[in-house]
Amino acid sequence: MSAIQRQVVWGLGFAFLLTAASTAAFFAVYPLEKWSYLWTKDVMGIPFLIFTPLFGCVLGTIGGFLAGQYWRSQFALVEQSLRQIEEGHYSEQKGSSNLYEMKQIQERIGNLNRQLTEKAKISQRLATEKAEVQENRIQEIISQERNRLARELHDSVSQQLFAASMMMSAITEGRRDGDPHGQQLKLVEGMIHQSQIEMRALLLHLRPAALKGKSLQEGIAELMNELAQKVTIDISWKAEDFLMDKGVEDHLFRILQESVSNTLRHAKANSLSVLLVKRDGLIILRVTDDGVGFDEADRKAGSYGMQNMHERALEVGGTLKVISVKNKGTRLEVKVPAVSNGDGEND
Description:
By secondary structure, the chain is an alpha+beta fold. It has three domains: 84 residues; 70 residues; 134 residues, Heat Shock Protein 90, CATH 3.30.565.10. Helix content is 63%, strand content 12%. The protein has a five-stranded mixed β-sheet. A two-stranded antiparallel ribbon has the order 1-2. Helix 8 links the parallel strand 3 and strand 4. The longest helix has 39 residues. The protein is elongated, with a radius of gyration of 34 Å. The two termini are 43 Å apart.
């Protein structure tokens, strides 16, 4: 039951009781000679017996409706404040109430806003420190081994796949139309082509490009340009120029790499789009493809990667949302509060 419906019911009940009490008191002071007067006596052309409860019902309905509208507006202020917190707008709180109790609630919400803002700052500061430590102490060791494996795979398996692809193309072109083996050869050629795409995605996993002093925008441009030269899908990107913490840049770049790798390995997409903007106090990274999509209920492939991306988003106080529709594509969106960590890098 909504606030308006509840207040209307209360208003009708109160009006009924008030009408009954006032009518009984009136008849106690001025007793009737005949009870038939209740039906024969008219008020505005309506018998008194009908007019009295009808008048009370009208007043109760009007009063309940107005009270319901008022309380609905008060609840809407609280709901709006909580929704802003849920969406990550920690520093914003719109609307105010003149009711003392509602002011107390809004004051508590304001305190919660400040606490969440401080926690987001601490999370981003810790993420920055963690990223710097990991990059200096671990990245060198891991990157050397990954680069070695990537070189070996590229020089051996990738080259063999490329040679096999060229040979299969030459064979299929030389076959006559109607050849019973032509369809199988086309299928094998497609499998080799898909293996090449998955190998490129694997190489992206093994040799993830680190920012290493570059901004996130520069890292996105470098990664997208490299992919555009190696894969056949249509790649587009837009990255607005703004400053952010080193930890936020590092985590968003890793999420982007993981998302692009999943697209290359599983999506079978024809186009890939990347967007990085800053809107309403939020840093937004969006990756969209037009691939085969998947059902949320049976998301098994790449589940570890999805969990890793969710954890990275949480570490910087952000949220990650994935929307996928079968045969329509997938959209991944990360929102991180653009709060200042005390270093003056974020607005």
